[in-house]
């Protein structure tokens, strides 16, 4: 049985379709990354899945419970971390955790709270108001609070935005540890390295799922070719390659230039012509996930006309 | 794990949280107790529907003993304070136009002669009636006071008898408040007004604050049912209401000496129903308002008619029918009748049963509205 099984979800705000026939299946123990540009409908989709928004069309089950009729049951077994910090800033760290523990009827409350504070390393700051925490610490508190009741499904909306690299590393180690124990995770992110740590990713754009699969699948299916250009006068090269036939993206990476195109033959022809003129070195590179996403974004902008 | 609609431990979590927030929000907390005290002092001490010792000007050219007797009799009523003694009508006119005096009393120079001849003695009192309530008390006592003063001064028993007979005795019978002390009427009414204002406003803001700060999203994602969320918001403010009730009742007794003839438990039970109706109204407002500003405006949308049409400011029976009908659909109207009946008339339950029933109807209506309007989702 899939932990998330939603089909053809549609959500409109006014006459704007924000989620457009989204279907998604996530199996138990899977970590799925949810990616897409700003305003593509990630938060909205996640809210539908935890019963915070009612879909205009479509149906589905989360943890085997019907999305439309059993939202209270879903809420008990899902941990949802909101994109914007939405705990009480005028309550202390410990009071926030106590509040959550009591709402989920966790007993004994003090043990859950103490353990969570301990894991977070916030025991000494337990009486600090949550509103006075730094951005990254707020994220960490929110995450700790939403896994306290040992949910079966975690819906995380950009959980690591503004979190330092070490804490991010720890966070992902923790997610993988929990997933090995059977927890299912759907996590939205804008970080490519995080996408690469997911078992599978889903790419959404303008409310439509454009690609889904492992990172390698997504890169392969995108059918892009990437060449890496090195040599002198790269700035000038970059300028001239921009918009040349077969060239979709030109992006400087340190002392190299990544040139990406979807039509391999055309791209090679253009580059070969340049190579004759300049003392540059051109070699076939590996297409990155970021290249693919940028390509997606450029293409969907064209679609929107 | 049970999936019940109602759980005491979840409710207690919500209550705890609300009380902590209330305690931390110093300004609001101070307001909850400060507003009743301020209103009590303002309305209780400053506002008087039967004002006394109003500034008056005396225009008297003669200084005979009839005139003096008349002036002292008027001063004795307590309504007049002769700050200005002038000799011409023009001077007096200027004073009343500027608003320096509320009355001008003119005793003509031939007053004494006419009294002795029995030839229709007259005195003229001009009142600044731009505020009718200022003048009413002062004028209503006038006839009696004036003729009695003359009688005393003449000492003529035979003539006194005839004059007394020809006089229409004005009987002012003020029941329940024989001295016409406005505080007896106002202070119990204030209890209702204070509760109406603070209870509705606090609860109306409480839920909108969650939406505005974004904490609503988290709260809704956690397993709290609409009933629990409603009670969690409403009960803490009802508790604040209880404190306010104690403050006002103690002040009524201690500061203003308002008598209490009825049963305290009966009054407290009625207050409880009233407070419940108010917090539920506030909660209903917060399910409609998107921002705290809107919540505030909606609160005043109910508050102003409540204060004007309930019989707090103006006598209920004196209003036109349509206004009375509007008044009937305000909880405050019914509560005012209850509190005045119980405190001042010593009414027992049967006498106020219909009013209590009306309050219960409001509770049911607002609770239903609140639960129907409550958005379980963010849509
Ligand atoms: N309550 C709402 N009313 C109207 N429009 C909304 C509402 N919520 C979201 N939208 C619109 O829906 C679109 C998708 O928003 P959503 O928050 O789901 O995007 P997102 O993918 O999470 O973006 P981001 O990466 O910036 O968080 C946006 O255009 C947004 O303006
Ligand atoms: Mg988002």
What do you see in this structure?
The complex is a heterodimer of chains A (305) and B (379). Chain A is α/β, with parallel strands linked by helices. Helices cover 39% and strands 28% of the residues of chain A. Chain A folds into two domains: 2-219, Rossmann fold; 225-286, Alpha-Beta Plaits (2-Layer Sandwich). Chain A has helices at 42-49, 71-77, 93-103, 109-120, 135-147, 165-180, 192-196, 215-222, 234-241, 264-277, 289-304; strands at residues 2-13, 16-27, 31-35, 57-62, 65-66, 78-81, 153-157, 184-188, 200-205, 208-213, 225-230, 249-253, 256-261, 281-285. A six-stranded mixed beta sheet of chain A has the order 6-7-8-3-9-10, with helices on both faces. In chain A, strands 2-1-4-5 form a four-stranded antiparallel beta sheet, with helices on one face. Chain A has a four-stranded antiparallel beta sheet with strand order 12-13-11-14, sandwiched between helices. In chain A, helix 3 (93-103) crosses helix 4 (109-120). The longest helix of chain A has 16 residues, at 165-180. Chain A is globular, with a radius of gyration of 23 Å. The model of chain A has no long low-confidence stretch (mean pLDDT 90). Chain B has two domains: 54-175, abc type-2 transporter like domain (abc type-2 transporter like fold), CATH 3.40.1710; 183-378, no CATH class. Chain B is 68% helix and 6% strand. In chain B, strand 1, helix 3 and strand 2 (80-86) form a beta-alpha-beta unit. The radius of gyration of chain B is 28 Å and the shape is elongated. The model of chain B is unreliable at 164-174 (pLDDT under 50). The chains are: A alpha/beta (305), B alpha/beta (379). Chain A binds chain B through residues 47, 50-54, 71-73, 75-76, 78, 80, 82, 84-91, 95, 98-100, 102-105, and chain B through 1, 3, 7, 9-10, 12-14, 16-17, 20-21, 24-25, 213-218, 220-225, 376-379. Bound molecules: adenosine-5'-triphosphate and magnesium ion (MG).
């Amino acid at each position: 049985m899939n932990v998330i099984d939603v089909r053809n979800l549609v959500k409109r705000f006014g006459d704007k379709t924000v989620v457009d026939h989204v279907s998604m299946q996530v199996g138990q123990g899977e970590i799925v990354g949810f990616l897409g540009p700003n305003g593509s409908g990630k938060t909205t989709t996640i809210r539908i899945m935890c019963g915070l928004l009612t879909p205009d069309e479509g149906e589905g089950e989360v943890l085997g419970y019907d999305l439309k009729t059993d939202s209270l049951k879903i809420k008990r077994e899902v941990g949802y971390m909101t994109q914007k910090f939405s705990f009480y800033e005028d309550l202390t760290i410990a009071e926030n955790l106590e509040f959550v523990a009591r709402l989920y009827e966790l007993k004994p409350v003090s043990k859950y709270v103490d353990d969570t504070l301990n894991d977070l390393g916030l025991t000494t700051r337990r009486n600090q108001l949550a509103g006075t925490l730094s951005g990254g610490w707020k994220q960490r508190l929110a995450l700790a609070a939403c896994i306290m009741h040992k949910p079966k499904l975690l819906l995380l909306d950009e959980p690591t935005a503004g979190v330092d690299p070490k804490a991010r590393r720890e966070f992902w180690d923790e997610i993988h540890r929990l997933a090995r124990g059977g927890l299912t995770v759907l996590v939205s992110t804008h970080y490519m390295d995080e996408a690469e740590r997911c078992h599978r990713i889903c790419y959404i754009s303008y409310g439509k799922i454009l690609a889904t699969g492992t990172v390698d699948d997504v890169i392969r299916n995108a059918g892009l070719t990437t060449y890496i250009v090195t040599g002198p006068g790269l700035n000038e090269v970059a300028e001239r390659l921009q918009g040349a036939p077969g060239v979709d993206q030109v992006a400087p990476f340190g002392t190299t230039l990544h040139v990406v195109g979807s039509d391999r033959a055309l791209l090679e022809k253009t580059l070969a012509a340049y190579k004759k003129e300049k003392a540059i070195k051109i070699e076939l590179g590996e297409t990155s996930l970021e290249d693919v996403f940028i390509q997606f974004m450029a293409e969907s902008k064209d679609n929107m006309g | 794990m049970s999936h019940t609609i109602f759980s005491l431990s979840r409710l207690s979590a919500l209550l705890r949280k609300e009380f902590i927030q209330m305690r931390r929000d110093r300004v609001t907390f101070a307001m909850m107790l400060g507003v009743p005290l301020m209103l009590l002092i303002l309305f209780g001490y400053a506002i008087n529907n039967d004002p006394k010792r109003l500034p008056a000007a005396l225009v008297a050219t003669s200084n005979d003993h009839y005139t003096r007797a008349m002036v002292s009799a008027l001063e004795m009523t307590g309504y007049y304070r002769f700050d200005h003694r002038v000799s011409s009508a023009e001077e007096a006119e200027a004073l009343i136009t500027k608003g320096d005096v509320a009355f001008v009393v003119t005793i003509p120079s031939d007053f004494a002669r006419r009294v002795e001849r029995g030839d229709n003695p007259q005195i003229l009192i001009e009142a600044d009636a731009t505020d009718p309530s200022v003048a009413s008390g002062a004028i209503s006592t006038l006839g009696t006071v004036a003729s009695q003063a003359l009688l005393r001064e003449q000492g003529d028993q035979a003539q006194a008898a005839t004059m007394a007979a020809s006089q229409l005795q004005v009987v002012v019978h003020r029941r329940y408040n024989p001295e016409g002390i406005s505080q007896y009427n106002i202070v119990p009414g204030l209890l209702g007004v204070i509760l109406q204002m603070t209870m509705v406003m606090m609860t109306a803001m409480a839920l909108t604050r969650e939406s505005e700060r974004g904490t609503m999203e988290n709260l809704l994602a956690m397993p709290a049912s609409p009933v629990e969320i409603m009670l969690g918001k409403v009960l803490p403010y009802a508790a604040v209401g209880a404190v306010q009730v104690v403050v006002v009742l103690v002040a009524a007794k201690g500061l203003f000496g308002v008598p209490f003839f009825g049963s305290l438990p009966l009054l407290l039970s009625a207050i409880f129903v009233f407070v419940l109706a108010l917090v539920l109204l506030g909660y209903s407002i917060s399910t409609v308002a998107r921002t705290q500003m809107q919540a505030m405006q909606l609160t005043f949308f109910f508050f102003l008619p409540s204060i004007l049409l309930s019989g707090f400011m103006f006598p209920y029976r004196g209003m036109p029918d349509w206004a009375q009908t509007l008044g009937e659909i305000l909880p405050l109207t019914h509560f005012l009748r209850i509190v005045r009946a119980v405190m001042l008339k010593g009414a027992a339950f049967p006498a106020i049963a219909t009013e209590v029933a009306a309050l219960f109807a409001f509770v049911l209506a607002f609770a239903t509205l609140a639960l129907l309007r409550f958005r379980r989702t963010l849509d």
